[in-house]
Every structure is written in C-alpha cells, then in structure tokens.
Amino acid sequence: MTQPFSYKLIAQDGAARLGEIATPRGVIRTPAFMPVGTTASVKAVFLDDVKAAGSDIILGNTYHLMLRPGAERIAKLGGLHSFMRWDGPILTDSGGFQVMSLAQLRKLTEKGVTFRSHIDGAMYELTPERSIEVQNLLGSDIQMQFDECTPFPATFDEAESSMRLSLRWAERSLAAFAQYGQPGRALFGIVQGSVYPELRKESAAKLTSMDFHGYSVGGLAVGEGQRAMFETLDFTSPLLPTNKPRYLMGVGTPSDIVGAVERGIDMFDCVMPTRSGRHGQAFTWAGKLNIKNAAHIEDLRPLDETSTCPASRDYSRAYIHHLFRSGEYLAPMILSWANIGFYQELMAAIRKSIAEGTFADVAARVRAVYPSTVEDDAGADAEAARSLKSR
C-alpha cells in the first residue's frame, strides 16, 4: 500500500513549527529548505552531495522541463526521479511564474497562457489542466496549482482580479489532479492577494475550503522588500490550517527564512545558494564573504571551520580564490556545495531550537551576521511608489 501524504506537527516555539511531511519517497523534516533543480539539476552540485548535506527534498521546474527535454519524454524515460538520479521527494512548481517572467509574447486569458518559448520561439499553451498533466508526467511528489503570480507593485483592483483568476484556476487544478494524480502525491493551493489583507483573507478562505494537501504563500519575494513580506505573512499565516504544511515560495536569505519561520512557515526554496556560489559568494556562520576578494589570496583558513560540510571545511580560501581567478569549473562547484551545506545546517539548527524552545537564540545568531534588509525595503518602497504613480 502506498504511503499517504500527511503532515505531523511535532512541536512549536511561539509560531515556529517543527514537523514532518510523510511522502511515499520519504519524510521531509520541517522547517525545510528545498534546493532548486530547475532543469533536472541542482546547478554545479552532485545530487549525492545535495543529499549528504541534509536535503530531504528538491524542487523541479515545470516550465523549463516541459520545454526541454519535454514532459512526455521524461515520462518515457522513467520519470524525473529516475532521470536525474534522485530517490527522495520532489516538488514541482506550476510553471506560471516562469511564463510570466521568461516567456516571449505571452497572452493571458481565462483559459490559461499562450506564449513563445524563450529557447526557440515555439508556441505553447499552459493551462491549469496542462500544468497538472505535466507535473504528473514528471512524477513529482508535491505539485502546485496553476496560478497567476501577481506582480509587485499592483493596485488593489489589479491584485483582486489576479487573485480571483488564480482561485478559478485552483478549482480547475484540483479537477485535473483528480484525473492525473497518483496515490501518495499531493497538490498545494497558492494564496495570492499581493500586500492587501482583505484579498489574502478571501484567497485563504476559499482555498482552504477546497481542501488542498498543503498551502503556499505566493506573490512575495517579488520586489516588495522584507518588511512588507513579513507584514503580509503576519496576517496570512494564521489564516492557514495548522494540520497542513505551509510553503513560502522563492525565499530566500537567511534572515528571510528565520523571519518566516517565526511566522509559522514550514517550507522554502530559493536559487540563492547556488547562484551566489557561481558568483563567488559564500554563506558561512560568520556571515557572507566574497571569495574573489584579494584578501583571500594567501588565506589558508577554510570557508567555515565550524561547518560539517566538506566543501566549507576541507578547502582553503586561498585555493578557492585561485580557482575563481583561473576560471576553473571546480570553483563554483565548491562554493555552491558549501552554500547548500550552510542552508541545510541552518535548517537543522532551526529544527533543533524549536524542539528545545530556543528558537529565538538561533534567530538572533542569524540576524547578527545576516541583518534584515532595511536598505532593500527602502528601495522597494520607492520603486513601488514610482510604479503606482505612473499607472
């Protein structure tokens, strides 16, 4: 008999939640960070190292995989897990965000979105039904409803129209999942409504009445700044069921994560660890460092001597600096691996602290070296004012 999808709340420290998500392919310890495997690869990192770092689940991208190599082809080749040699759980997004941000000549209608591929210009159509079909062809364990990711800034009327379209697409996504889904797989709804409390409340109420397996908070980390994101979570998280997982999409920095955990979020994903690694940025327990700086040219210290990750512990800063200066492929591989290791150490520390009732201590430790992005908030506020004024 297939293991059913389920969530168990184990402990709380304030609103911070320690839990477990059971899936047919294994348990996901929460709070959890999901490394992003956009095109069936966590960029520059072997999946064995991703797993050894402590990752229980990774994320795959519906938009990219349906364009290349194609969902039907991946299904023919045995499904995404077999294709990329990952035997743990996989979450796939719906493809909606990438359609809005990457596709060319897109046209949005009630039915869905037609667009030209950013790869070869071929015309595609993505609807709630096709998104769910693609995700099931890939064989992902957790799937996302098809939605419109509301841009920021958006007026109230724009956010309301977008949110209600996503609600209608949520109903169609559920119907498609009933057709294509397999035992043990799960479908999450996505709460939209921009930064407007009444819209978030309406979205959450209608989605919870549909009884999804879990709920995501969408439309954040899109330029609104950390302060607005946290304010939105303050009034959105309490609207979500306590007996189901909560996922904040596309987040984020270490301070973003501890702030969201404080507000009851269980799951995160972000390209930041690997993208930063490819550009010479390393996350450590002493803060972020740029390994390309000349200060590291003769520094024999490891990236982080307190880390359990071999990438952070076993290579000198001088050596990694040399690799970047020499243009060696190994350079971004080591830093991306190290950053995945740091993020998973962060999540392990968060889980342990919730169990012990000391989460505030871990949050303070993280904020001491990864402070809140006040400057980014100011920039986001100014940009929002300019954009809304020009409408």
Walk me through this protein's architecture.
The chain is α/β, with parallel strands linked by helices. β10, α7 and β11 form a beta-alpha-beta unit. An 8-stranded parallel beta barrel has the order 4-5-6-10-11-12-13-14, surrounded by 5 helices. Strands 1-2-3 form a 3-stranded antiparallel β-sheet. It contains 16 helices and 16 strands. It is 45% helix and 19% strand. It starts with 5 loop residues before the first strand and ends with a helix.
**What is the CA-CA span between the terminal residues?**
56 Å
Biggest β-sheet, characterized? 8 strands, parallel, barrel
Strand content: 15-25%
**Which residues form runs of ≥5 with pLDDT under 50?**
374-391
In total, the number of strands is 16
Structural class: alpha/beta
Shape descriptor: globular
Please list the strands of the largest sheet in the order they lie side by side. 4-5-6-10-11-12-13-14
Mean pLDDT equals 94
What is the CA-based Rg, rounded?
21 Å
Residues in helix, %: 40-55%
What is the number of helical segments per DSSP (H or I, 4+ residues)? 16
Question: Key features?
Answer:
16 helices; eight-stranded parallel beta barrel; alpha/beta; 391 residues; 16 strands; 45% helix
In short:
With 391 residues, this protein is an alpha/beta fold. It has 16 helices and 16 strands.
Question: What is the secondary structure topology, with strand pairs?
Answer:
Elements: E1 6-13, E2 16-23, E3 26-30, E4 32-37, H1 47-52, E5 58-60, H2 62-67, H3 71-76, H4 80-84, E6 90-92, H5 96-102, E7 104-108, E8 113-116, E9 123-126, H6 128-138, E10 142-144, H7 156-180, E11 186-191, H8 197-210, E12 214-217, H9 226-236, E13 246-248, H10 254-262, E14 267-270, H11 272-278, E15 281-284, E16 287-290, H12 310-313, H13 317-326, H14 330-356, H15 359-369, H16 374-389
Parallel strand pairs: 4-5, 4-14, 5-6, 6-10, 10-11, 11-12, 12-13, 13-14
Antiparallel strand pairs: 1-2, 2-3, 7-8, 8-9, 15-16
Helix pairs in contact: 6-7, 7-8, 10-15, 11-14, 13-14, 14-15
